[in-house]
Design brief:
The chain is built from 7 helices and 5 strands. It is α+β, with helices and mostly antiparallel strands. The chain has a domain of 116 residues. Strands 1, 2, 3, 4 and 5 form a 5-stranded antiparallel sheet that branches. It is elongated.
């Protein structure tokens, strides 16, 4: 009789513990951070920093002093003249007087013209929603937040002649993926791929 009473009183306690665990399980869902390391704290900070570099007054060394040196900053790609020719191909269709002076000087300079692309993004992806539905692949909800900035800096010899800044000040995306068959949803695809 004692054993039966203790198992009856343990039942509701066990149910309560399981319920609390399942409610708190959303904290167990995956979370991903994707960022290019940068001293910028946000989009506005990046734009303000980049806008402080003035074409025809700043040099390549000035740009490097601001932390935009491709040898030490993974967010920067060096472009050679052929890359810039592709980017500025539309300039040949415009009257020369309507083309930005920096682009004109670059095209005239030929191989002495080169550029840097700066690409910084900070993204935070986290899965939200029901833990059990997510775990068994029935429904996965993902929220992505962050920002990104893109800039093009063009040099002739060591003088900055042109800059262009853009990007996304706010990234806020919500994605839902539903799989009616749950864990069995991709079984047919996986077996078809293994036969190839």
């Amino acid at each position: 009789m004692k054993n039966r009473r203790s198992s009856l009183s343990a039942g509701p306690a066990l149910a309560l513990i399981c319920s609390l665990l399942l409610q708190g399980c959303s904290a167990l869902l995956p979370r991903t951070k994707n960022e290019v390391i940068s001293s910028w704290t946000g989009y506005d900070d990046a734009v303000k920093s980049l806008a402080a570099i003035a074409p025809y007054t700043a040099t390549r060394e000035d740009v490097h002093r601001l932390g935009l040196d491709p040898r030490t900053n993974a967010a920067i790609t060096v472009l050679h003249f052929a890359d810039l020719l592709q980017k500025f191909a539309a300039a040949s269709l415009i009257k020369p007087e309507h083309v930005d002076p920096g682009i004109r000087d670059c095209l005239r300079a030929g191989k002495q013209c080169y550029g840097y692309t700066v690409s910084v993004k900070k993204l935070d992806r986290r899965r939200v929603g029901n833990f059990m539905l997510d775990m068994f692949n029935f429904k996965r909800e993902t929220v992505t937040t962050g920002w990104s900035v893109e800039a093009l800096l063009v040099f002739v010899d060591d003088k900055l002649v042109y800059e262009l800044i853009g990007g996304q000040p706010t990234i806020n995306e919500y994605e839902v993926k539903r799989n009616p068959l749950g864990p069995l949803q991709n079984v047919g695809e996986e077996s078809a791929q293994s036969l190839r």
